[in-house]
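Below is a typical protein record.
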Amino acid sequence: MDLIEKLKLAGLSGNEARVYLELVKHGSIPARDIAKSLSMDRTLAYQILHNLIDKGFAHYQKRGAKTYYSASKPGFVLTKFREQATEIESAIPELTALSKTAPSAAPSSEIYEGKQGLRVLISELFSAKDICIFGATGNSYDVLKWELGHVVKSFELAKITGRMIMDEKLRGHKMMYIKGLKVRCFKNTPASATTAIYNDTVAIHSITDKPTVIIIRNKEVAQTYKNYFEQLWRQAKA
């Protein structure tokens, strides 16, 4: 993950991250020089600088008739991120209380696109009692290559268990060695979509073009998929 992507995690847009990095590199610089360095419209550069100032990532000083902009110390980025994490953490008890008083949700389906969809699915799997997966491709390791190693370690520490069926050609892939996950294989069954069954939910994700995740929350549908999974599991080779 490059610096731009890391700064986005701290709440900056792509352009804000680019301008912030320019400020870090130059120490103190006029807006017009930033615009020129980044091949950016000067009006846009001014707007972004003001956004950074509002967010606490930058400040300015007057030198005669000119205004020079500087980045806040890099440590501020971490402080800002920690503040945001603390705020979010403090909201969890209230959100949990609200969810307990809400009426039971009717069967539903949701569609997510992009990496964030995969992250939503992963976060749900942490609450699963047992996970059944078939059509595993291992493509998530490519899309979330900077994250999945940490996710797997967290899964193992949480002692989450499950079973997974995949094509024989993928035997030896690192996903086979996740602790708590039993694996069986089929020959000549290449897949472009992976199905996971957990908590009365079925999640199907495909990463052939861009990540797409479909989540179906329906007890009957989940049980049907689970029945098919059990049949496949009996036939698959350990």
